[in-house]
Amino acid sequence: MTLDIQDLTVTTSTGVPLLDRVTWSVPRGGRVGIIGESGSGKSLTAAAVMGLLPSGMLATGSIMWEGRNLLTSSERQMRRIRGARIAMVFQEPLTALDPLMTVGKQIAGPLALHRNLTGHAARSRVKELLERVSLADSERIAASYPWQLSGGQRQRVALAMALACEPDVLIADEPTTALDVTVQAEILALVDELISGTTTTLIFVSHDLPVITQVANDIVVMRNGRVTERTTTQRLVSGPREPYTQQLVDAASRMTALPRKAQP
């Protein structure tokens, strides 16, 4: 069940190109990381896979999955896929989650829509999912609103909701950017743990090279809406081919090697 993107091109309504012939694929169970600076097109690529491109944008090319082109699928068809077969964790859960609905009800939403689970069965599944993402106080968490939780808790809730229907493809769009370093490491370890031993395909979007190398086996490097390099994580770190990729590796090496300033 390979997800195959070929010549994906996205333009604005006025013809300004945002993505230019983006091409890459990931097999079932694979882990691909998309990295690049802000505005490189990495999140826009993820949005195209989900069928969530902003209104007015024109997309051409193909995103093939299970014998269908997601770009030409109707919104009705995508609603059956989105959340059930292909799910997404967004960068900032405080804006992705509904502030007026308890997180338990939000996690139960996909279960009712795609699995016909309601009542006690849904509540039991919500409890199981919250505990699976290491939120032990599941009853309190389920009864809470997003704004009553910490950033790390909200991101765990978003991950639980994305995994509720056991999707075939999980897209994580910069899920650790708004978190502090300690919580960031916990979320990365959790993502790795949750999909290890499964056939779930992971697409992990980030601008942070050290972060992305922790969870991805293959890397797609993007710049100015184009793919500049596609390689394995090991090859990218040990010997990138493209100058831009080398800049990313050098910058990451300098940042991780920076000594701490002495306290006065």
From TrEMBL:
Where can this protein be found? Cell membrane
Quote the SMART domains the UniProt record gives. Answer: AAA (SM00382)
Record keywords, A-Z: ATP-binding, Cell inner membrane, Cell membrane, Membrane, Nucleotide-binding, Translocase, Transport
One GO cellular component from the entry?
plasma membrane
The UniProt GO MF terms for this protein read: ATP binding; ATP hydrolysis activity
Family annotation (PROSITE patterns): ABC_TRANSPORTER_1, ABC_TRANSPORTER_2
- The superkingdom listed in its UniProt entry is Bacteria
Q: Which InterPro entries match?
A: AAA+_ATPase, ABC_Ni/Peptide_Import, ABC_transporter-like_ATP-bd, ABC_transporter-like_CS, P-loop_NTPase
Provide the topology term for how it sits in the membrane: Peripheral membrane protein
Q: Where is the ABC transporter domain?
A: 3-249
Q: Does the keyword Translocase apply?
A: yes
Q: Which family does it belong to?
A: Belongs to the ABC transporter superfamily.
What is the designated name of this protein?
Answer: ABC transporter related
- The species this protein belongs to is Jonesia denitrificans (strain ATCC 14870 / DSM 20603 / BCRC 15368 / CIP 55.134 / JCM 11481 / NBRC 15587 / NCTC 10816 / Prevot 55134) (Listeria denitrificans)
